[in-house]
Amino acid sequence: MSVVIAIDGTSACGKGTLARKLARHYGFAHLDSGALYRLVALGVISKGGNPSRSEDAIRSAREIDPEGINDPHLRTGPVGEAASVVAAVPEVRAAVLDFQREFAVHPPGGANGAVIDGRDIGTIICPDATAKLFIDAKPRVRAIRRWLELKQRCDTAEATLPNIDRIEADLLARDQRDRTRKTAPLRQAEDAILLDTSDLDIEAAFVKALALINDKVESALAARHRG
Ligand code: CDP
Description:
Helix content: 55-70%
Order of helices and strands: EHEHHHHEHEHHEH
Bound molecules: cytidine-5'-diphosphate
C-alpha cells in the first residue's frame, strides 16, 4: 500500500500550494484533482459546448487527456467556475475516479506515496488515506490570495483583473455549490484534521501541516519499508 496524504478544502484556501510542498518534502507524487475537473470544463468550453448541459460535460470527461493537467489555461476564473458546474454531474465524477485511485495506489515515477488535493479525497477517493487535512481560510483572505495568483499568472494589467469583492463572491458561490451537490459534496472527513490558514503564510502553513501529519506519514513509510 502506498502512503497517501489527502488534502481537501474550500476554493483558493492554499491547499494546492501546500500539497506541492508536502509532496516535495516527502518525495511523493502530487495530483491536483481540481485540474481534472478544470480539464473537463475547458474541453466543453473550447468545443463551444455548455458546461451546464450534462451531455456536454460527460462527453468531455470521457475524452480528457490527463497529460494536459498543467495547461495554464486551466487556471482562469471562468474555467474554475465551469469546473464546479461539471463537477456536480455524477457521470463526470465517475469518469475521473479510476484515474485518481490509480494515482494513489501506484504513484507515478515509483514514488513511495502520493499527495492528492481536492474536495472529496478524504471522503470518497481515498477514505483510507494515511493522513487527511481539511484546509480553510476566511473568505476575504482567500479572495486576496486568488487575486494575487491571477495577477501573477496572467501577467494582466491590474485594471483588467476582477476586483477582490467580485472574486470573494465567486468563491463563496462556488463553495456553496460544492458543499450542497448530491454527489461527493465538499466536506471534512471525520478523521481529517482542520487547518485554518487565515493567519499563516505559505511557509507557516507548511510547518503546521507537517507537525500535524508527520508522525502518521513517517510510521506508514517505516511499515512500508519493513514490507
Ligand atoms: O483552485 P481552486 O480551489 O479554486 O479550485 P480547484 O481545486 O481547481 O477545483 C475546481 C472545481 O473542481 C471546484 O470548485 C470543485 O467543484 C471541483 N472539484 C471537485 O468537485 N472535486 C475535487 N476533488 C476537486 C475539485
